[in-house]
What we know:
Blueprint: H1 3-15, H2 18-25, H3 29-43, E1 48-51, E2 54-57, H4 59-82, E3 92-97, H5 100-113, E4 118-123, H6 126-134, E5 140-144, E6 152-167, H7 180-183, E7 187-191, H8 196-207, E8 213-218, H9 221-229, E9 234-238, H10 239-242, E10 248-252, E11 259-267, H11 274-282, H12 292-298
Parallel strand pairs: 3-4, 3-5, 7-8, 7-9
Antiparallel strand pairs: 1-2, 5-11, 6-9, 6-10, 6-11
Helix pairs in contact: 1-2, 1-3, 1-4, 2-3, 5-11
Amino acid sequence: MNNSQLRAFHAVALYGGFSKAADRLGLTQPAISDQVKKLEEHFGVLLFHRHKRIVKLTPLGEQLFEITKRKYQLEDQAKDLLSAHQVLEKGSLTIASDTPLHVFPLIAQFKQKYPGINIRVSFANSEQIISGLTEFTYDLGIIADMEPDKRYHSIKISEYPLVAFVSKKHDLARRDSVTLREISRYPLVLRERGSRTRWLVEEEFEKAALPFKTGVEVQGREACREAVAAEIGVGLVIKPEFGFDERLIALPISDCDSVMTESIVCLREKMELQVVQAFFKSNNLPLLKNTPSADLEAS
Length: 299
């Protein structure tokens, strides 16, 4: 076994396929397939189930993937430590957010100081982001209503209430505000399960002991907006995310006191990475007290 074979295995497991792994490593798909095949043949094992275009880890492959995640995480930390004295002129940072609202101002602030860092942004719901952070897919996440968890360094960056929104042709469109009871008379356009917005909506109706009707369940905010514009039902979203749409109107919910917070979140071991520390510092966000950078500032 050599490092090229192990890295090829890790890339296929991480990115979910041989073609994607080849693209990430700058190699051809046959070269990646050959490295993984040699690794399997050397030990007489099967690390992936292959069926047409579907690639799935075997139980043994899943165990090995847990080891390679730790191995390459430690390699990244070692490289970062050795280059800590240098200015961050090159590098990469992967961020996942549940909304575009907060992530781009943070990135803009960071890029002013470190323009050479390549940043890749993904959008997903809170549940998916937490999973991605745990699996080392993302360096940072911006997540709604983050629960306390010792595995993560988490800093709250905003707090906003829910609002309802309807088509301008809707019965409620001429109102200045609405109540949950009034909303409950109409079908709702709900986000997918795993969305923090969906969770907050269900919690509010449960606290008010009110039933609600589902008009349609959709994936993502854009789909929610289009469904409401098509008059399928009433949508709910945190206030700043409503934005502007000439087809729609936002309505404060007079008896809804709950707010949704947004936090920037990082695995504690990822806080050792210089580029992550630089992102926090460039946005005036507090670091963990036990990071090397924090220790240096304290001294």
